[in-house]
Amino acid sequence: MRARLCLLTMLLIMGGHAAASSLETLLMPGKVTNAHAKIESECTDCHDRSNRISQNALCMSCHKDIAANLNNHSGYHGHLANLSTLQCHACHTEHQGRNADIVKLIPDQFDHSQTDFSLQGAHTTLPCSSCHAAGKKFSEAPATCVSCHRRDEPHQGQLGNDCGACHNNITWLNAKFDHSKTTFPLTNKHAEVPCAACHMQNHYKGTPAQCDACHAPDDVHRGTRSGGCGQCHSTISWTTAKFNHAKETGFALLGAHAQTDCINCHTSGRMQDPIPKDCNGCHRVQDAHAGRMGGDCGKCHDSTAWKPAMFDHARDAGFAVTGPHAKLQCDTCHTANVATQKLGSDCSSCHRAQDVHLGKLGNRCEHCHVESGWRNDIHFDHDLSSFPLVGLHVAVPCEQCHLTQQFKDVKQDCYSCHQAQDRHKGGLGKQCASCHTTNGWEIWEFNHDKSTAFPLSGAHSKLQCNACHKRPAGEVKLSTECGACHVRDDVHFGQYGQQCQRCHTSVSFKQVRMQ
């Protein structure tokens, strides 16, 4: 003890403040942690010998991020109770060695509700490493949905980053988006349709709201009603039409008439064209009696069916009339005198005249059609053909491409159908797919720098395509020499050749390189 006092006296006499600092270093209870090793020799950086209460302020002078949390009541430290009385050293004890753990964080016992991001729902079962990356501070973990779940987001950012507006933290699948708050509320059958049926390829803005934009393939009127589907149909069902045929036309649809397709009577496709209202006026061609029974069909038949007669087709003709055949008029098949006409039992023998494909697809109608109706459950798979339907082609009605309904006579190159939509007027050739996709003409990508031997720089990058590509269709390739386009700009009149770039730049002819 006496020796220590002597040593202290000598140090005070010899070195003053410096001696006191060295003495404190010699007398400290142990090494500080690696994080504080650089300031170990300056005890006053962390300790105030005259006022122990001010030690917190010394800590905050270095740990400014913690100080900000305390002032803003944010982060873990900002949520601690009794902040005014807490001392840093109460939790973070120093002088226990270089490798000592002064944080003393136990992840499994950490109360995340004490932070700015309380764990709820599915977050409570996640391991810490799911959000807290190795080597980074825990406080640096992102707190927004999209920061962690960008890969899980199927909308590709088109609906913004506020995932919580529709989803909760229990599961992504329980979305609460209210379509009724948009300009297109979902009612009846629309409410059962999956989002992707209308919003293809995750496109939400600009989705059409007109009936025929989606239901053109279902339009049995083939556009003759000017797209006003809602005038007769509702979202409950296409077949639940509210058109009053008796009131609007003076001809009440009774019996079989109420079940027939409009096109069966309105053969021209134009509903406003006048048609006869008497039986013989419509069914003369179907008269199996060839007029021998007169024109008053109602004497034997009514509007329910042509066959209230005693004739049993299966028994008497050897051909069971089932399905839609049972609803057909006799003269649909028997176009001539029934006593002399012999009919086959295959589809083609009767329906050859109705073959809109003109035999181009063969005689095996059942490969695509079913007995319930020519237009019912057509099971042709276009994806198995040489031209699979992708992108916007999926929503295009058959008649838009197959104008003659022979189907096989349609060309498969883009230009054959889309020549009228070619803004380049053939100046860039006919290989539209080089730049465009089937998702829309406006969705295109062409990199002039990578796809050609002439990168666009300077003033070239601001030009429209047709500024250079002025030649006729098919001649896309142009000379890359300056003089090929700028012969009129050549103030030297060709005396220095066509390699203008030796002196000039692509920014402006007025910029001259000084050799």
Tally of helical runs: 18
Report the end-to-end length measured between terminal Cα atoms.
86 Å
Give the helices and strands as they follow along the chain.
Answer: HHHHHHHHHHHHHHHHEEHH
CA radius of gyration is 43 Å
- Helicity, as a percent range: 10-25%
- Average pLDDT number: 80
Describe this structure in words.
There is one protein chain. The chain is mainly alpha-helical and 515 residues long. Helix content is 21%, strand content 1%. The protein has 18 helices and 2 strands. It has helices at 2-15, 17-27, 55-62, 64-72, 75-78, 145-149, 195-198, 211-215, 245-249, 262-265, 279-283, 313-317, 330-333, 347-351, 398-401, 414-418, 448-451, 482-486; strands at residues 436-437, 440-444. The protein has a two-stranded antiparallel sheet with strand order 1-2. Helix 1 (2-15) runs antiparallel to helix 2. The protein is elongated. It starts with a helix and ends in a 29-residue tail after the last helix. The relative contact order is 0.03.
List keywords for this structure.
2 strands, single chain, 515 residues, mainly alpha, two-stranded antiparallel ribbon, elongated, 1% strand
Question: In terms of topology, how is this protein built?
Answer:
Layout lengths: L1 H14 L1 H11 L27 H8 L1 H9 L2 H4 L66 H5 L45 H4 L12 H5 L29 H5 L12 H4 L13 H5 L29 H5 L12 H4 L13 H5 L46 H4 L12 H5 L17 E2 L2 E5 L3 H4 L30 H5 L29
Antiparallel strand pairs: 1-2
Summarize the structure.
By secondary structure, the protein is an all-alpha fold. Helices cover 21% and strands 1% of the residues.
